[in-house]
Amino acid sequence: MTMIARKLLPCATLAILMGIGAGCASSSSTSDGAASPAAGTGNAASELTATYVTGEGPKTLAEAKGKVVIVDFWATYCDPCKKSFPKYQELVDQFGGDLAVIAISVDEPGDVSEDKLKEFAKETGVKFTILWDKDHKTADAYKPPNMPTSFIIDKDGNISKMHAKYEAGEEAKIADEVKALLGK
User: Fold this and answer.
1) CATH number of the CATH domain containing 99
2) 13: part of which helix (H) or strand (E)?
């Protein structure tokens, strides 16, 4: 079995068991800002239509106008998501009112409850906005190739960068991107 197949097999199995078509990995994804055609860098970011669950801050891109926004697609079954959430909260704290994080759960309604999403936020120590994309309309617009996938949205509402997956140190790259977008 190839190395790629060994990496994808557990994610593919989990996706099949959970009934999810989009998944943990894609051969066309990168973590260096290359985005899928549906949500390419430089394109206007689609508005978020997911349901508010918990957290502070803007719930839509319209509410976040004038801020840099991290739109993060995640799921409760995603171990890297558990690692990225506290790091994103640190970025929110670092940049104050200039940065907003809007985290969008793609968990299936039959698999989790709103309380489980709130519990995930509490366990990871985050205060930013958590939305639930129960019908996957927002995920369909952005087409995240992995969990998690973060889109960095500039102050004008355009997709600046995309980070597919999360690895230790990713937050430093994102912090540099946010600084550049803020002119700092």
Assistant:
1) 3.40.30.10
2) helix 3-18
